[in-house]
Please model this.
Amino acid sequence: MSTGVVPGIELQMTLLLFFALAGYLLASKINQSAVVGEILLGLVVGRRRFSG
Model:
């Protein structure tokens, strides 16, 4: 079993959950559905990840 893969996956999952929570909090502040905030942050993070 390769132990080098596990920290990378854990970090990615932690960042994913952090950004989902940030999207939820941001959307709640502007009286929008939590899903809207999560989707918008997902688009921003995904665009930055795959554009460069």
